[in-house]
């Protein structure tokens, strides 16, 4: 490591006791180093006869609410067309982490809420809306129900109507975005937790057991309704857009291929328009402000 620092003419680590932390120069090298390793693996895969080494790899960072719905559909279509590709999914803690995750090389694609509210740092990113994400209030099945309830939502429920309604919630963190948190705060009452659990599956299971109501995305709410839960859209938190963001200047061939496939899927047309230039081999600059990807990028 000392030899590398000497060759580069920069200190990469702060050495404190038995530990080390990256300096600003180290952080600057991290992203390019990961991209070099990724390209090296892809070069090895291109000439390797070993199927375990020849599988292309795509790293995606995903905001938890974006895991289901449009992203799942795009991933399924992409993997059907590219069955040899291996997708590694990392959790994106918040939309504000998108730029750092892409810059550090941890992931090449992020799936998050759009539009990105990350200031000038996101100007270099290309973005592609995939669809909307609705939030539903799901209540336990009514006592004595003879069978599953129809998978149809009830009338919309306002945040103020959740006053004194116990809920099974995730640990304190943005449920989808800072915008949703602001909406809840502006609406008056705070959500009342009866239980706080770390897994989304546990929230649904505990709600179905009658512990308390909970907040779910559209797909999970419909699945819960088939088990007897009653659900209704949370007024003012519907139609939030989720989509992809990536840096077209550093995207690998497999990342550009995925972006092109996502663009084709998002158009919902058998004869989809040409993919955005940022998703084509060679890449291209994103519009300032991380505007939605289209043929003009």
UniProtKB/TrEMBL annotation:
A GO molecular function term, named singly, is: DNA binding
HTH lysR-type domain location:
1-23
User: What name goes with this protein?
Assistant: DNA-binding transcriptional LysR family regulator
Pfam families the record matches: HTH_1 (PF00126), LysR_substrate (PF03466)
What residue spans carry the Low complexity bias annotation?
Answer: 288-297
**PANTHER family noted in UniProt:** HCA OPERON TRANSCRIPTIONAL ACTIVATOR HCAR, TRANSCRIPTIONAL DUAL REGULATOR HCAR-RELATED
Region annotated Disordered sits at 270-297
Q: Which UniProt keywords apply?
A: DNA-binding, Transcription, Transcription regulation
Family, per the entry? Belongs to the LysR transcriptional regulatory family.
Source species: Actinomadura algeriensis
């Amino acid at each position: 490591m000392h030899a590398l620092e000497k060759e580069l003419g920069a200190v990469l680590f702060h050495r404190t006791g038995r530990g080390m932390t990256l300096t600003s120069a180290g952080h600057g090298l991290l992203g390019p180093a990961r991209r070099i390793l990724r390209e090296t693996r892809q070069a090895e895969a291109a000439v390797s006869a070993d199927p375990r080494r020849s599988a292309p790899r795509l790293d995606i960072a995903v905001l938890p609410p974006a895991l289901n719905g449009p992203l799942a559909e795009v991933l399924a279509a992409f993997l059907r067309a590219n069955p040899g590709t291996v997708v590694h999914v990392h959790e994106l803690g918040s939309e504000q982490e998108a730029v750092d995750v892409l810059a550090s090389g941890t992931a090449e694609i992020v799936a998050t809420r759009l539009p990105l509210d990350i200031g000038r740092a996101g100007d270099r990113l290309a973005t592609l809306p995939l669809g909307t994400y609705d939030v539903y209030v799901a209540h336990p099945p009514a006592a004595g129900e003879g069978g599953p309830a129809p998978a149809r939502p009830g009338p919309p429920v306002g945040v103020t109507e959740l006053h004194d309604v116990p809920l099974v919630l995730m640990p304190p963190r943005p449920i989808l975005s800072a915008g949703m948190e602001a909406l809840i705060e502006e609406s008056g009452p705070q959500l009342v937790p009866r239980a706080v659990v770390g897994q989304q599956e546990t929230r649904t299971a505990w709600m179905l057991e009658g512990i308390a109501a909970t907040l779910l995305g559209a797909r999970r709410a419909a699945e819960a309704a088939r088990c007897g839960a009653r659900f209704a859209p949370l007024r003012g938190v519907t139609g939030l857009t989720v989509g992809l963001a990536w840096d077209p200047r550093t995207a690998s061939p497999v990342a550009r291929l995925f972006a092109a496939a996502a663009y084709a899927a998002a158009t919902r047309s058998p004869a989809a328009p040409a993919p955005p230039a940022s998703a084509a081999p060679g890449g291209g600059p994103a519009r300032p402000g991380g505007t939605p990807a289209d043929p003009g990028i």
